[in-house]
């Protein structure tokens, strides 16, 4: 039997069909501005940390009650439950690491029964977003460190780790992994990935892994 895999997925536009920060920005009236910054960051034209701070700043004063509303707008990408079930049935683990936010990811990850997840946290004061991010930002380097940390935690050899992403912020994680999969990805990611998967169905990953 093959050694079990550790599969680590990006969240926005990979695990889910949405960009959470754009859903929040739509509530704040800053959608166009935020979508333009997101696009540039994903193409690798902007530093992720700086671009995230700029985008989050536009969310200041939004009530935290909007998190529940945004969660209801999330669509899980086709094939995700099958991928998770298949990896776990083969003795492996599935994690998600996001430049997005714990406030949205936590209940979703719990529902999907992910083994691990990590994201940024938005600062809230008196029931409203302050427009700031708490703690260290989950950027490209943090995503790579997270994959390595989870591999150590699960005693999974790096050769059995799989990173799946679509934007520039996923490149270091993909470089660190044993196998990198560009999922309906930006050109810069397609160029560097081991495998390109254009069909938006993550269950296809099981076939790639021989499961």
Which features would summarize this protein structure in a list?
211 residues, alpha/beta, Rossmann fold, seven-stranded mixed β-sheet, 11 helices
Explain this structure:
The protein is an alpha/beta fold. The protein has a single domain (6-208), classed as Rossmann fold (3-Layer(aba) Sandwich), CATH 3.40.50. It has helices spanning 11-15, 20-28, 31-42, 48-57, 66-73, 80-89, 102-112, 140-153, 171-176, 187-192, 204-208, and strands spanning 6-9, 93-101, 116-125, 128-134, 161-165, 179-183, 195-197. A 7-stranded mixed beta sheet has the order 4-3-2-1-5-6-7, sandwiched between helices. Helix 7 links the parallel strand 2 and strand 3 (116-125). The relative contact order is 0.20. The mean pLDDT is 95.
Radius of gyration: 16 Å
**Distance from first to last alpha carbon:** 11 Å
User: What's the number of helices?
Assistant: 11
Shape, principal axes of CA atoms: globular
- Which secondary-structure class do the elements indicate? alpha/beta
Tally of strands:
7
Named CATH topology:
Rossmann fold
Main sheet specs? 7 strands, mixed
- The stretches of 5 or more residues where confidence is low (pLDDT under 50) are none
Q: Numbering strands along the chain, what is their spatial order in the largest sheet?
A: 4-3-2-1-5-6-7
Q: Would you state the CATH class?
A: Alpha Beta
Can you write the helix and strand succession as a string? EHHHHHHEHEEHEHEHEH
Share in β-strands: 15-25%
Q: What is the residue-mean pLDDT, rounded to a whole number?
A: 95
Counted up, domains total 1
At CATH level 2, the architecture is: 3-Layer(aba) Sandwich
Helix content: 40-55%
What's the CATH H-level homologous superfamily? Answer: HAD superfamily/HAD-like
């Amino acid at each position: 039997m093959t050694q079990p895999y550790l599969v680590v997925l990006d969240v926005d536009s990979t695990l889910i069909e949405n960009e959470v920060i754009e859903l929040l920005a739509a509530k704040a009236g800053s959608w166009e501005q935020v979508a333009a910054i997101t696009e540039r960051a994903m193409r690798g034209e902007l530093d992720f940390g700086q671009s995230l701070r700029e985008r989050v700043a536009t969310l200041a004063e939004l009530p935290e009650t909007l998190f529940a509303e945004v969660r209801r707008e999330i669509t899980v990408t086709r094939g995700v439950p099958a991928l998770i079930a298949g990896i776990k049935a083969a003795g492996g683990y599935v994690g998600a690491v996001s430049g997005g936010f714990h406030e949205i990811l936590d209940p979703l990850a719990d529902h999907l029964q992910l083994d691990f997840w990590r994201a940024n946290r938005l600062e809230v004061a008196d029931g409203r977003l302050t427009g700031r991010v708490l703690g260290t930002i989950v950027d490209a380097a943090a995503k790579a460190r997270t994959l390595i940390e989870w591999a150590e935690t699960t005693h999974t050899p790096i050769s059995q780790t799989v990173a799946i992403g679509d934007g520039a912020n996923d490149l270091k994680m993909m470089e660190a992994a044993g196998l990198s999969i560009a999922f309906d990805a930006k050109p810069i990611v397609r160029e560097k990935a081991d495998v390109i998967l254009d069909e938006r169905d993550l269950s296809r990953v099981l076939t790639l892994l021989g499961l």
